[in-house]
Amino acid sequence: KMFRRSVVTDGTATGQVGIKKKSKVPGVMITQFIEPLPEGMSHPDFTRKPIALTIQEGKFAFFKAIVTGDPTPTVTWSRNNGDVSDTSRYQTKYDPTSNEHTFEMPNVMPDQADTYKCFAINEYGQAIVTVILNIIEVGYKKNKAPQPAAEATNGNFKNVLKRRSKILPKSEQSERKDGEIDPKFWELLLSAEKKDYERICAEFGVTDFRWMLKKLNEKKKEREEEQAEFVRNISNLKPIQVNADGTASFEVDMDLIDPSSSIFLYKDGVMVPYTKELGDKIKHNLKQVGKKYIFSMKDLMPDDAGLYQLDVEDVNMFSTDFKIPMVDFLVKIQEVKAIEREDAVFECVLSNPFSKILWFGKNLPLEQGEKYDIQVSEDKLIHRLVVKDCMVVDKGIYSACAGIKSCNAWLVVEADKEAPKGKKSARKTTRAGGSGMDLQKVAQEQQVKLVKEREERKEQIQIAKEEAAAAPPPETPPAPAPTKTPAEPEAPKDPEPKPGITCGLSDIYCHRGQPAELAVTMNIECEGTWFKDGEQLNSAAGINITKDGTSHKLTIQTCKDNDSGVYRFVSGDQSTQGKVTVGGVPEFDPDDLHKFSKPVIIRVGQNAAFKMPFPPQESLVVSWFKDCTEIKDGGGVKIVREPNHSRLLLRDCLRTDAGEIKIQLKNPFGSVEATSKLIVLDRPGPPEGPVETAESTSSIIEIKWNPPKDDGGSAVTNYVIERQQAGQCLWTKLGDVSADRTSFRDRNVMHGKKYNYRIYAENPEGLSDTLETADSIMAGIMILSGPPGAPQVVSASKTCIKLTWTPPEDDRGVPIIGYQLEKRKKDTNQWIALNAVNEPIEDVKYAVKDVTEGTEYEFRVSAINESGPGDLSPPSAMVCAKNPNMRPCFKNPEDFIVVRAGISARVKICYEAEPPPEITWLKDNEPISPWINIINTEGMSQLVIPSSKRSDSAIYTIIAKNSVGEASFDIEVRVTDEPKSPGPVELEQTVHGKVLVSWAPSPDQELDDRLFYMVSQHDSNTRVWKTIADRLLTNTYTANNILPGIEYHFRIYAKNDMGLSDPSQSPTWGVNSNRGRLSKSTEVCFERPPSILVPLKVHTPPKGYQLYMTCAVRGCPTPTVSWYLNGICINSDNNYYITNSFGVCSMYIMRVRPNDSGEYRVVAVNSLGKAECSTKLIVKGKAFDRRVGI
Hints:
Immunoglobulin-like; six-stranded antiparallel sheet; 88 strands; repeat; immunoglobulin domain; Ig_I-set; Immunoglobulin like and fibronectin type III domain containing 1, tandem duplicate 4
């Protein structure tokens, strides 16, 4: 399929677009209204989205979200099928500290189960996320799922019956008949491994294994068909077990066909509320990691034991039985300090025999093996873990778990100081650790105690059976005989009324040690009898029975515990009864009360815990209060109620959580309270403002403030004061003052300067936020300078107007720092400052460059002192930003230009003139040729000869003329080329020691009047060419100091502005020319062709390094050496410094560049032959300031 970006119209205004964007948080839908977004702005997004919640009816439900966006988004909540405007059921909160938006539903009800939406909206877009709330009704059972109930209302009862579980809650289980198997047996077998079949059968009393296996295969086939509707595969079923961190968990791998399928958890047939991510809020948690589902529960209690089942929709996937043995640690494991290569021993003693406990090391389960030895005593009370051959890596926390009880201790492994350095120490035979007690004695005493308890229980059972067999059936207390009265004559009209009770008994609670009274009122005066628990009562010690007319009273003078019971009054066939309960107001132990009353002091973000023990009582209601408001369980509050104590845990406390914490115990006899205090320490709040100026002089500023409303839970120790001079960015600390002072005197101020101050409050937790002054405070009184003189125009051009002015006549006693200049365009009313007050013009003149050509301006100026800018000067005269009329003049022109023939010649002349002049070019006072280009721009004129020739050499004249005058300038352009070599060279000796060198002129001598000659000399002693004459305009030269016996050679070069010609070589002068020929038998010849003695080497220097490249060459006559890079001669390239010293040829590169890479070749040539060698240079890496010498 093809998908296109969708454009939505919901939530967008006219002219806006709606572009779907992707959030980093899955499940968040983002719509952007504007494209592109302005710089620094962003659409809303969720960094933490609300999490789906399954919770029991009546609990506290909430969703939390954190959103981002600039500007800050507005967050709202809604639900699909209902309204959330009822503030008694829905509450929206925002915590600016954590940036959390909370949607709370206290005392959640089933009708609030729905899909909820959270909206985050700003002007650039909106973000939406949905979350589901599931409500478990009170008393909700596994056979009462919501969907079947809905189907039953439509008349389809088959699905309802299908969803009923075979495991019913204990309250709904009927008494099983003889031979009937508990359905729990089959559920456990379906999820168990084969090795556990025998144990499960023994537990449920099943002995026919063949029948069991046959029946089990049938049930497995049926169950697999049911599971195939919802899962593709199910594996790795791990039964529930206790972990090292005190939690219990079981695991299963499921590949769901529909990932949105509902998953239910049950314990003994009752649905268990759980959460998927908020594990710290609810006891049970279901976590999904890929295809693995992990169910865990924390805060384990004995009543957590039972059968746990995991269902997908209406099909059971896994069942596991969690058994919690009644066992505790009599002796806990202790910390062990061992030396390397020594064994460490952890020991413990249990209160009841236990075949195997779980051992953990650094949160990992430990098993019997080469590293660990797990031992159990015969009576199964003593358990021991031996860590063999301890190494430093073995140190950590080790724990023992028995049922839901656990204990832990550290293993500290110290290095063996006696071990030889660099060698492993020898294995030690000693053991470290142990409990330090006689565990055998403790175990024997516990064994005796257990045997005694078993015997006592047997005796009690036997006595109970005998009493039950001998006890007669209960008798009903006889009714009192009616009192006979003498016969009286019957009244013919008024028959005798029958006795009746007008005011009967009711249940009452009596305080122990206090009197109690039971009263019955009859309609006529008659006799009556009192009974307690079926036994007749008479007036006796402690009990008084009285009769006053129709009123019958029973008075208990001092109530005792044995006075509790059911009291009954009988008169004739009339009776009434009531229950009397004797007790007392709950009490706290004085030591516990004293301990509880001590304040709990924590820091912000920490948890606060309160615990209060009390004697176990019936009908006891425990309530917790904070500042007289009752605290309910849920959210960040957890309340635990045990028979003999209660605990309160407040998570992630804020400063607002500080206050009075009270626990109330209430029963029918009264209530008692214990009070404590929660102190949450934090940084103090900012000092209270505003900051007042108590005094301001030229040398002192005194400020005052008020203490902070919130001291952060601990007293403010001092205040920190900082100062900033107005117009600057730097804040400077001035000092501290003690907490009892709320004022500060700043003595380091300058008159007229303005200052800002900020104050911090400090306590042991840190510094508060700042309190800043609303306005700057000036030191002393503001004294402004008088007006300077009106600005005068010195000069004006199209780019700059120069002004000057005079200082104020009256500076009013305060030194002037500088000036502020303002400008105004003609026909406008707005004055624009050319410099800021904190950047004053220090001189009385200024060049205004921010002008527009042709625009008229006027200017004014004010003097600035410590108090600020003073009175303004009168405005200047209007001045126009344009250049003044001036005669043309040329700026730094060149009068001679040399150009190589064949390339373009460019003559550039800059000038100044107003108004712009008319430009004319002449060649030798004649108009220039049409193919010569003239380019005129503002202030500059160029003459361009596209392809110059020698005939273009001439004197070119530029003429600039305007209404003011004219100017001209001559430029000589010489088009030339490298000269040709001079003619043959002749040598003649006229005087001893001198040789006349003459040569024929170069062919270019007549064409180039700037051509001259250069003479170089070479002798057989030095073997180096040196220049002996230069800039010769003649064709002869006399060489001096010519010595006999030495050979001399001369070279003649023609030279002009383009460079040197090739040389003309002279004949040899010296030994061979002056001496006769030797016979062949005596001739010695030194001539030889060039050869390479030391070749070049390959170099790979980094970029930026210096490089030397050398080789050695010999030959006679001395060869001419040339260097080539990639076939191009580089002898005349200034980037390479090349020398030849007696045959050692060197090339130096000061800083190697990438384009220096390539093949370098040295060629040595003389009249007898040629020799050459080559190498490669590779430039690599970064540049470093290093040298490479070769």
